[in-house]
Structures are given as C-alpha cells and as structure tokens.
C-alpha cells in the first residue's frame, strides 16, 4: 500500500500521530477494496445458473415436461427432441432414456438444449450405475445392469419407505425365481400413463408388455427413474421368503410368504379405508390359488 509522505514544511507528527494516520489510511484503503469485492460477489451470485430438480421416481415424461418449462420451450419439445438426439445410453435401452435420467439437481446454463440436459442426467446415471460394484451386484442376482435398473424402478414405485425397499426387491426376485407374474400395478399404470392407486379388473387384462398381471418376467424397460436407495435395494435385496405385501397405513407395510395371511392383511386395510374412498391396498400378490374364489383376490396397487 502506498501513502503520500508529508512535506517537510508541514508540522511533524508525533509517533502517536503518525500511527493514527497510518491506521486511518489502512481503514480507508480496506473500505475502498471491500466495495468492489462485494460488488463482484453479488455479480457472481446473480450469474449463477437456474437449476432443475428431478425427484426420485419421476417418469421420463414428467422430466421432459420439466425441461420444457426450464428452457421455456413449447410443450412437447423435449419429447420430440429425444427421437433425434444421440444420447449415450446402454444398448439395451434402444434410445429410450427411461431409468437413466438420474434424480438430482442440475444447472440450467445459458444455451442449454433438451439434448444437453438429458445427457447431463444420463452421465450422472452412468457414474452411479456402471461401476464394478453395481455390475457385480447385478450378476449376483443373475441379471445385467439394465435389468437391475428396471427392478430398482419398480422398487422406487412400490416401496412406501426407504426401509421397505430391500423387502420389496426381495418380493420381486422371489416371484421371478418362482416363475410367478410380478402383478405389480405400477408397471401397468406406467403403460397406461396413470398416477393412481386404482386398478380395475379390465385394467389387469390389458394387453401390453408392461402388464405384469398377465406376463411373467420384468417389463421391457424401467418404469421410472430410480434413485440410489432403490438401486442399492435392487442389488442387495433383504433376505426373506416374502411373496406378498400390503401397505396398511403410511409407514406400515406387511410382508408375508403366506397367501391367507396376505388376505387377512388386505381385509384389514379395506376395513380401515372403506369409508375414505381408498379401498385399494398399496400392495401386490400373485393370483389366488385355484381353490380360492375370484373375489378373494386382493385389490392390487
């Protein structure tokens, strides 16, 4: 810091006086520097890009709409762009990014396009899903990574709490290993583009590859975009023999391997909710045994 030296003709200052001048000058210089720094900091805050938050479990269609709004594009622009985009996806995805639009908060920078936003999400998924531990976890369950993401997407849709995810994943694997249809309403609602807990008898007879009431095995693609917890559950399902589950109330999901116990759980759910307009339990199960009447089957989510 430079200071002006007083001329010899001026009154000499005492040591205390010189110290006072130096201190005063330092404060003034510090103030002069602080103002532009504060201005620059404020400018940087103003220059921060907007962000786009993608929640866990959103479907690709919801994300497309969110990107349209974030980029101020006409509705349907991102959906149209997907077909023309050169997105870096697994071969099994066949150009469909469902399952690989990783839930996170993304910057919306100047000049961003639907393709650039989608690729950001896919790159994030690639970092999370394509490591050696994920591949090893998928292999333990006799599937590839894409199939593991598909299982995780069902877990994300079906589990009512993080604590239930591992058990829901185990139900899925137990059914697959037993040759049972998954009978997860979440897969059917995906095909019907619904967000509901209601499934009618005619819905369950719908002919489409996502109808896990009618078809065995996994649906052809993920049904949403799962987060890390759901993926972790799909790779490391909780040990158990469960085949059925019903969410009686928020935070209370009952898992069982016994069909009759499952029916009692469903009956309890229906008794609790018969006057609330939500008589459909949020659980699933394979078809009733042949000896059981058709109306004994639980209403499935």
UniProtKB/TrEMBL annotation:
Its EC number is 4.2.2.29. Residues 197-234, 276-301 are annotated as: Disordered. It catalyses: a peptidoglycan chain = a peptidoglycan chain with N-acetyl-1,6-anhydromuramyl-[peptide] at the reducing end + a peptidoglycan chain with N-acetylglucosamine at the non-reducing end. Keywords: Cell membrane, Cell wall biogenesis/degradation, Lyase, Membrane, Transmembrane, Transmembrane helix. InterPro entries: MLTG-like (IPR003770). CDD domains: MltG_like. The record marks 158 as: Important for catalytic activity. Residues 197-215 have a biased composition (Polar residues). It is an enzyme of class 4 (lyase). Functions as a peptidoglycan terminase that cleaves nascent peptidoglycan strands endolytically to terminate their elongation. Belongs to the transglycosylase MltG family. This is Endolytic murein transglycosylase. It comes from Streptomyces olivaceoviridis.
């Amino acid at each position: 810091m430079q200071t002006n030296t007083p001329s010899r003709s001026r009154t000499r200052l005492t040591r205390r006086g010189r110290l006072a001048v130096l201190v005063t000058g330092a404060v003034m210089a510090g103030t002069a520097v602080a103002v532009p720094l504060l201005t620059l900091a404020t400018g940087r805050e103003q220059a921060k890009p907007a962000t786009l938050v993608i929640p866990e479990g959103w479907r690709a269609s919801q994300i497309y709409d969110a990107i349209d709004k974030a980029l101020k594009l006409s509705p349907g622009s991102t959906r149209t762009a997907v077909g023309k985009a050169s997105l870096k996806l697994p071969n099994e995805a066949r150009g469909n990014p469902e399952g690989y639009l990783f839930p996170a908060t993304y910057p919306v920078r100047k000049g961003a396009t639907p393709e650039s936003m989608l690729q950001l999400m896919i790159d994030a998924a690639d970092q999370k899903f394509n490591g050696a531990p994920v591949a090893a976890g998928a292999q333990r369950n006799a599937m590839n990574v894409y199939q593991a993401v598909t299982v995780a997407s069902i877990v994300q849709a079906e589990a009512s709490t993080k604590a239930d995810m591992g058990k829901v994943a185990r139900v899925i694997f137990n059914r697959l290993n037993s040759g049972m249809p998954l009978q997860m309403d979440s897969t059917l609602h995906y095909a019907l583009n619904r967000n509901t807990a209601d499934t009618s008898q005619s819905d369950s007879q719908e002919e489409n590859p996502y109808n896990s009431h009618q078809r065995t095995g996994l649906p052809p693609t993920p049904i949403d975009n799962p987060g890390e917890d759901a993926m972790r559950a799909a790779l490391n399902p909780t040990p158990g023999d469960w085949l059925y589950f019903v969410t009686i109330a928020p935070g209370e999901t009952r898992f069982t391997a016994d069909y009759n116990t499952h029916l009692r759980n469903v009956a309890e759910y229906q008794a609790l909710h018969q006057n609330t307009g939500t008589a459909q339990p949020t659980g699933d199960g394979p078809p009733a045994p042949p000896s059981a009447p058709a109306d004994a089957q639980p209403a499935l989510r």
